[in-house]
Amino acid sequence: MTQYFELACPSRPENVGLCRVTVATFAANLGFTLPEIEEIKVAVSEAVSNVVVHAYPGAEGLIGLRCEESADGLVISVHDKGVGIEDVAKARQASFSTDPERMGLGFVFMESFSDEFRVESQPGKGTRIEMRKRREAPAEGA
Amino acid sequence: MLEGAGKPVQIAIRRQGPTATVRLSGEFDLKAAPQVREQLDGLIDGGAQRIVIDLRQVRFLDSSGLGVLLGRYRRLSERGGSIYLLTAAEGSVRTVLEMSGVRQVMPLLASESEVPRT
Ligand SMILES: Nc1ncnc2c1ncn2[C@@H]1O[C@H](COP(=O)(O)OP(=O)(O)OP(=O)(O)O)[C@@H](O)[C@H]1O
Ligand SMILES: [Mg+2]
User: Which residues of A touch B95 (CB under 8 A)?
Assistant: First the structure.
């Protein structure tokens, strides 16, 4: 069996740190380097913050997190059962935000800090993002 | 690495005339955002003209923290004031700041001695 974990928690701001640190610990156990772990933390924080901020306007709902070891690294998925995204391509553009107080950088960071990045969303049903991160090849003779 | 896990942000403020220095430490994320926003808005409403935000002890920064910084810049610049950010030369906080483009409006400085005198 491949190594994995799943976590479910309510969409509260304090759970962003919980998810971030849990994934970081998992990545460290898989041998990711510190700089890679720093990037993973930002990507996870963005995905989970989006669930807290956008998925359930004026309410609380589920944050679903799953992390799985892959042949060359790690697959992280974050899902919610919230309002979904009407136009994913538009939402992924830098500086696009439906909230005037925000910068619209979350998706940009998720994409920059992962090797593969996918967003699936259905209005009224929810959103699922998947990020793959490859481990730096271990140094020769290490 | 577990150190700082959900570590609440800490805010230390020093005021000298129109200049305020705000030292943040811990993790500046969605959880910390309202607290930092409130403190910075208090300084702006209290007439601070220059705010130096020391991020050198911040261990984590993401778009929620960046949004607070940029929002305060907008408020203060409307009143003719400015914000300077102190940050380490490398690390993820620096990377995130660079990628966000906020340095176009808020200079990234290495120490207080680099803040221009008025
Ligand atoms: N899980 C989600 N559920 C519903 N809408 C979402 C979700 N994630 C993102 N969105 C939508 O996509 C937009 C872009 O997201 P992105 O994270 O890039 O920017 P942001 O969250 O608005 O700002 P920032 O991340 O800089 O704080 C959001 O404004 C929101 O409308
Ligand atoms: Mg976001």
Answer: 38
